[in-house]
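User: I'm preparing a small set of examples for a lab meeting where we compare how different chains pack in three dimensions. I only have the primary sequence for this one, and I'd like the structure in token form so I can line it up with the others. Please keep the answer compact; I'll paste it straight into my notes.
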Amino acid sequence: MNAPPLLALTLGDAAGIGPEIALRLLADPPAGARLLIVGHRAALERELVQVPGVAMPPEVARPSDVATAPGSVGRWTGSAPLPGLPAYGSIDAAAGAACHAWVLQAADLALAGEVAGIVTGPIHKAAWHAAGVRHPGHTEALCEHAGAERVLMMLTGGRLRVALATIHVPLRTVPDLLDTAQLTDDLVLLARETAAAFGPERPRLAVCGLNPHAGEGGLFGDEDARIIAPAVAAARARGVDAHGPLPADGCIPAAVEGGYDAVFAMYHDQALPAVKSVGRRGGINITLGLPFVRTSVDHGTAFDVAGQGRAQASSLRAAVEAAAKIAARRAEFGVGTAS
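Assistant: Understood. Below is the structure token output for the 339-residue chain.
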């Protein structure tokens, strides 16, 4: 019997709940995966008082040293150092630099084929900024580091899967960022990656309009007819089963009911409230277009509850379980470089 996929799990910002939820996960590791913790030992040790009875994972010098049994865990001794523990709930430049380094180290392990994918704990964008990191988040950093031409952020909750045309940008800039050629390529990427990760071979995609009622025939803006509709037509000409532009308030509920395999939204908050409502505490974030699997929790660092022992690991568990299943499916179909 083959060993479950080995996944690198980054601890996230040590000032937040990332180390705590990682330790809670280790109390009952998912049997479908093996985990390599990428993060400083002290960040985990501090949480032992919040999560009593959980043993620290054994130290391993190489990813291959993690045991092959289902649910096995090891902490990588090559993890970048954390020079002093930050105060809970604080924007700390050193913590930001450390968790940024852990993300890039995990990506390097995946690129080298030493792990089948990575699962990332929550980071605080202000801490990254304080550390001099110019990327606004995981998605952009991993895209550049992996040399990917283009990536998409997908969030899932329950039966709902949503990918975003734009991510962390001001709402007023969204119309100017939409481009027919780019949207076409994004739809082709979304179809390919959805098929590889979840199936079916030719997924049915709903494409949200930008404006209310998808523009209502031009009454509420011309971007839907001028930019998005031609992209849908071009994607269909390339074999993608795309439909739209459609009013978001109609196609998203239809996707929840199983009418579509994925939704392509035009901006961050157009669809994420629905994902988090449907998924509740089990939603996850997936980066499409990378040469390796990457999933993450769908929540932030929760500075307001950090250090109080109240954090829940349900989203992290879902992210690990999804990464393991996607990695196994990609390996079965020969997608990507790691296995």
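A couple of notes for your slides: Residues 151-289 form a domain with the Isopropylmalate Dehydrogenase fold (CATH 3.40.718.10). The chain has two domains: 1-148+290-339, 151-289.

User: Perfect, thanks.
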